[in-house]
Amino acid sequence: MSDFLSKTLDRVKPSPTIMISAKAAELKAAGRDVIALSAGEPDFDTPDNIKAAAKAAIDAGKTKYTAPDGITELKQAICAKFKRDNGLDYAPDQVSVSSGGKQVLYNALMATLNPGDEVVIPAPYWVSYPDMVLLAGGTPVVADTSMQTGFKLTADQLEAAITPKTKWLIFNSPSNPSGAGYSAAELKELTDVLLRHPHVWVMTDDMYEHLAYGDFKFCTPAEVEPKLYDRTLTVNGVSKAYAMTGWRIGYAAGPKHLIGAMRKIQSQSTSNPSSVSQWAAVEALNGEQDYIETSRPVFQDRRDLVVGMLNKAEGIACPTPDGAFYVYPSIAGCIGKSTQNGVEITSDEVFATELLEEEGVAVVFGAAFGLSPNFRVSYATSNEELTDACTRIQNFCARLK
Fold first, then answer.
1. Residues in domain Aminotransferase class I/classII large (predicted)?
2. Which of 10, 21, 149, 376 is the most buried (most CB within 10 A)?
3. Which domains does the chain have, with CATH numbers?
């Protein structure tokens, strides 16, 4: 039977974050006391004005097929958002709407990559980036960052990673999984490198744009360096900013010929995203933005709680992220120690497995994101659960010998 399946499947692996979340749910269903810190979605409900817009769309019969890559009204709202928030001018025919940000990225890679094409991906990275590149026939080139640089790619590292075969840089700020955010000055250093390599395009994943804390100010590559406008795909969505993960609406803006190619692929795969979700997204972008302003300080308080508690755990060092709702602590101080059951902590995957087994806390091991020895915590849950989970992590680390 294995001969029946495509050999492309040999190049990719299932999403570790989804697998771990499913394992946590399975243990919970079996009666285990499990706290899942693995899923990357806000715990808040979708705002009422957005839900009302979806209900109104249903009542108005807006439940038919739409244009393959989105209704005009949503594309106009996206253009207004880019102008309002990022100072970027796009026309509706430069916009693509898909069933989530993941499909936007996948469409772009499928539309542009040929065998041998390389895509530079800073690590730690969102788990799906390398596998999407592989599915599209390209070659991921991982550029490791470090905790010493705040998990940020330096200009020298980017320069070293670029070859004549490089087609894209995938850029994510604030980052999943580290929460690292690039200042305008830091981003300018990277865009200066890209200006020297006109064959390299930028695919920028801005999904966590509105989750920026303290003095950190979000900016996006085409905003920082307008000369890159014609070779930048600016990707965003409503999932994180408006607690709409299940509505599945992602979008991007870029050059017309790229957007047209992405439209062609989508027209022969999923066709249009949910019509009702599109109308909800119109309200999300055009309506009151109160949710963003009220949720941001809640996430910042949770960040501070988690960072403070994890830094009190023996063998763990947890930097303070600039945005998103993740922390990416190092467990370098735990490597080589053993659990009470005699299991040696040889990797972050072993650490995460034993933590779930002994304490019922589900986290995602760092190897899934391409940089070890670390693990990712999503703090998109209540202070009560976070306090309980971090206490359990402290207890687990204290028992390691």
1. 33-393
2. 376
3. 2-45+291-396 (3.90.1150.10), 64-286 (3.40.640.10)
Q: Are strands 166-172 and 201-205 parallel, antiparallel or unpaired?
A: parallel
Q: Which amino acid is at 118?
A: E
**pLDDT per position as a tens digit, 77-105:** 999 999 999 999 999 999 999 999 999 99
Q: Residue 1: what pLDDT?
A: 55
The three-state DSSP-derived secondary structure of 377-398 is EECCCCHHHHHHHHHHHHHHHH
Q: Distance (Å, rounded) from C-alpha 301 to C-alpha 305?
A: 6
Q: What is the pLDDT of residue 12?
A: 84
Residue written as token pair 């087994």: 357
Residues 6+ apart with CB under 8 A from 347: 335, 365, 367, 372, 373
Burial class (CB in 10 A: 0-12, 13-18, 19+), 113: buried
DSSP class of residue 46 equals P
**Letter for the amino acid at 94?**
Q
